[in-house]
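Hey,
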Amino acid sequence: MFCQNCGAEINDNAVVCVKCGCAVNNPKKSENKEWLIVLLLCFFLGGFGVHRFYVGKTGTGVAMLLTCGGCGIWALIDFILILVGSFTDAEGNRIAMH
């Protein structure tokens, strides 16, 4: 992870940057969504975009709801992204298996 103020590399658990003293906004401290729940929501209700609503992506959730998950293609792509750990929530945090 890198400091947002000075760009120095810092520890993932750091609260303050050692180089500049700036407070670190650590995304890992935010509320993490459960990987299995997102995976199951996508598998069973992916055409309705429920998994996107769950992770806070309401805009794309509505788009998926209106297009039936992009005729299933968008839901399938999301399912694969969730499986490989590349799917992110609205804050940009990865939804990955712990």
